[in-house]
Amino acid sequence: MIARRFVFVFPIVIAVTMMMPLVAGAQSAAPLASPMPASPSPHGQRSDLPLPDPALTPGDIASSDIKDVCFPGYERDQGYLTPEDVRKTFDEYHVTTIQRQHRFVVDRLVPASLGGSGEMRNLWAMPLEAIRRKRFIEQTLQEQVCSGNISLAEAQRRMITDWRAAVTW
Fold first, then answer.
1. What is the pLDDT of residues 23-33, one digit of tens each?
2. At a CB cut-off of 8 Å and minimum separation 6, what does 57 contact?
3. Measuring CA to CA, which of 5, 31, 83, 154 is 20 to 30 A from 23?
């Protein structure tokens, strides 16, 4: 009987322990966890994260219409990358088979959520360590575009120029 009580109590302790930072953080204006560790560079951008090769991935735009990118489901409707496009991108960036499985992902420089195309000119082999940061930046920019804080063209330009510095903190 005693062993059973510990089995049932243990998950409760874990759940309460995991929730404690949420309760403590509720009074703070700062987010509980940043998408990537803090950076010594200005505006929080991570200069140690890579940029795509501009000769291989200059960026490509499928839509410059704010009504498209702010329409619910637009990004999902842009389709997935084909296995052939993924293979070609990895080959262009000289990513080995082992690295493909564990260290890299093919990504759109200008995301579909900001009107980016699925063409080879917009695809690059991005290290997995950068994915959380880039997704956070993409989401933040889309929110800024759809709320009218910046233009879609400016958001696209920022992603093409240096996605790491596209959002200032």
1. 333 333 333 22
2. 109, 121, 122, 123, 124
3. 5
